[in-house]
Amino acid sequence: MWSLIIALMLPGSPxxxxxxxxxxxxxxxxxxxxxxxxxxxxxxxxxxxVQKVIEESGTVAFKRPGRMRWEYRSPEKLLVTDGAxxxxxxxxxxxxxxxxxxxxxxxxxxxxxxxxxxxxTRLLDAFQVVDSESEPAVGGRVLRLIPLRPQExxxxxxxxxxxxEGQVRRISLLDNQGNRTEFIxxxxxxxxxxxxxxxxxxxxxxxxxxxxxxxxxxxxxx
Length: 222
Description:
Blueprint: H1 2-9, H2 20-32, E1 36-47, E2 52-63, E3 67-73, E4 77-81, E5 86-90, E6 95-99, H3 113-117, H4 123-126, E7 127-131, E8 141-147, E9 156-162, E10 167-174, E11 180-190, E12 208-211
Parallel strand pairs: 6-12
Antiparallel strand pairs: 1-2, 1-11, 2-3, 3-4, 4-5, 5-6, 7-8, 8-9, 9-10, 10-11
């Protein structure tokens, strides 16, 4: 009798993690319902050879179909994609790089993890999904994503998700040089009805405009 009462008074055990197939379905169901998404983000790039870490932060917004807006703080820069054209603007350089290739920015290629959370790609159509041995960075469950088709920008990826609802809180991309790019999302707000105007860009007067084919990639600029 006393053992039963004591057992009832003790804190409950944490819930069992869902089986992997159930979690994958939960992730897909979550992003099937997402029309727009905004969050604060931290971007961390780790260069393997020189052991250099570059960390930046700002705010990001996505909206179907294929629209996104990344606003960076210090140094200030802006990347806007309206679904057909991308604009990368660094006020300090007084330069705008314009790309008419929808898939060319921030890993938003077909079959990328970012395209999954934007609703452009279904998870199992693009990746084999397995549990990762990496430690969680934001208290979620880490999954390793192995591309089903070769990717130009990354060899494999990880996502860290909240198992309760399948929400992605972190994305990590590993390229063929061993460099890693990581995005951590905080203060996530979904389906707020973001206006289309947030994903339009007007080139400021007095700045240079370069086509992406004429410009060095942003990561290679001084």
